[in-house]
TrEMBL record:
The keyword Ribonucleoprotein does not apply. The gene is nuoH. It is a multi-pass membrane protein. InterPro entries: NADH_UbQ_OxRdtase_su1/FPO (IPR001694). This is NADH-quinone oxidoreductase subunit H. The chain crosses the membrane at residues 7-26, 79-98, 110-132, 152-174, 180-198, 227-251, 263-283, 295-315. Its main location: membrane. It catalyses: a quinone + NADH + 5 H(+)(in) = a quinol + NAD(+) + 4 H(+)(out). Keywords: Cell membrane, Membrane, NAD, Quinone, Translocase, Transmembrane, Transmembrane helix, Ubiquinone. Its EC number is 7.1.1.-. Belongs to the complex I subunit 1 family. NDH-1 shuttles electrons from NADH, via FMN and iron-sulfur (Fe-S) centers, to quinones in the respiratory chain. The immediate electron acceptor for the enzyme in this species is believed to be ubiquinone. Couples the redox reaction to proton translocation (for every two electrons transferred, four hydrogen ions are translocated across the cytoplasmic membrane), and thus conserves the redox energy in a proton gradient. This subunit may bind ubiquinone. The keyword Oxidoreductase does not apply.
Amino acid sequence: MNDVLDVALRLLAVFAAFLVLPLVVGQTEHKVMAHMQGRLGPMYAGGFHGWAQLVADGVKFAQKEDVVPAEADRRVFRLAPAVALLPYLLVLLAIPVGPDTVGQVVDAGVFFVLAVMGVGVLGSLMAGWASANKFSLLGGLRTAAQLLSYELPMLLAAASVAMAAGTVSLTGILDAFEWWWLPWQIVGAVVFFVAGLAELQRPPFDMPVADSEIIFGAYTEYTGMRFALFLLAEYAGIVVLCGLTTVLFLGGWHGPLGADGLGWLWTLLKTAVLAFVVIWLRVSYPRMREDQLQRLAWTVLVPLALAQIALTGVVKVVL
């Protein structure tokens, strides 16, 4: 009975985090972008510092009409937002937050989280194909092309830290983590983080939703709460990417100089800092062209990831 209760509480905690953390990231993005770009709009709703901006956005989406195009494949069209969102909930289950704080221990955690994250692209493909809109279809195809290009460097970068730890378990990687890994794993961390941004279609890698070219890509025909679910999936993806980068490359719950007493708060703090970097990049860099995107993946990130794996092998043999 105690085991069942323990599992239920862990699942409830993960689900609560899945509902709260993406909304916090969304609210933070409003504020950070407003300060960096001098935009006062998000500072008014609710009074002090625009605290009710997130509530206002939710009310706005709830009030909008749920429109389905006449020629759309209605079942696929309605299912696509859930397919885009739910993989990130499954990934959160496998991310260890503290020494004994994880939704579900997965022995092959690295492979599991990367495989499940790749499923999310099906939501964009389904939305693009089912919308009966050529701009939506182009956006869905661009999303698939981006996934194919950036899945490889992301996997190679994760493989380097798995080699260093001698395990593909996320919990095992954290148990084996040493702070002296940082100088020679930093390249892998950058490759993993940049490739993850491209998979999430975050600026400057947001060609699949380039409003100046294809309106809003695969999501052009979506309105109301269905569109809000796609936005929630984007913010959930940011939480997952930053959490995985923290676990794989930044020591997760391990604090500097052996200060591990904060436990899961270290994981949350590092994830928050990386989420701020994601927002910062959105404000700071213009959108890349499609050819620049592919060139970055195949001529820069893949060679760097392979070099990181080679360096990891040398370090393992020498030490």
